[in-house]
Amino acid sequence: MTPILETTKIVDEVMLARRSVRGFLPTPVPRTIIEDILKVSAKAPSGSNIQPWKVYVVTGKRKEQITEAVLDVFNDPEKNVLHRPEYIYYPKNWTEPFLARRRKVGYDLYALAGIARGEHQKMHQFHGKNYEFFGAPVALMLTIPRVMEQGSWLDYGMFVQNILLAATARGLASCPQAAFISYHQIVTDILEIPADEQFVMAISLGYEDTAETVNQLVTERAEVKDFVKFCD
């Protein structure tokens, strides 16, 4: 196999292997590995090379503090109603095929978790695992300067994807999480994030717990013909 074909095979395998994991082992991740992941991820393209990202690597007591504070609000309806996201992640009005895709992944995930339709308390408890970072030993909390506009958010997505792929290539599992955006103020206060930075999302990072049933989730992808139009 030629070097180009071998490289293509490796890159494709990493992209195909990447998936969102919702159960991690407590095994620590060496700081050098985290630094390596972020170093190569910073090669992501950005308009005029402005590189509009900042990362807070959170472990240990500070991560536990975030979990405790967010769960305290999440589990209290009176407190929870006071917290709202700074930006809207999902559409206000769902259309097809997006609604069907969302429902299917939700049904599949709850089925693996042993949660039946209508078991709202169990759903709530399962959703709460987001705020425990699914047991991951490392959390990456990402921010963007508030002065940046929509184009920089596009750049940011490429940076995030680089992180996920770089982690996968090193044998680590990950889970990008928008669940924390409703609790951006809690994260901001605990990490002392400056007011001129906006919280974007979290990424849980660590080694997969292969005994966790929900990690068996396999998400479907549309065929190329379903989302591509070749214009000659």
UniProtKB/TrEMBL annotation:
Residues 17-207 form the Nitroreductase domain. Keywords: Flavoprotein, FMN, Oxidoreductase. GO terms for molecular function: oxidoreductase activity. Its cofactor is FMN. Gene3D superfamilies: NADH Oxidase. Belongs to the nitroreductase family. PANTHER family: NAD(P)H NITROREDUCTASE YDGI-RELATED (PTHR43673), NITROREDUCTASE (PTHR43673:SF2). This is Nitroreductase.
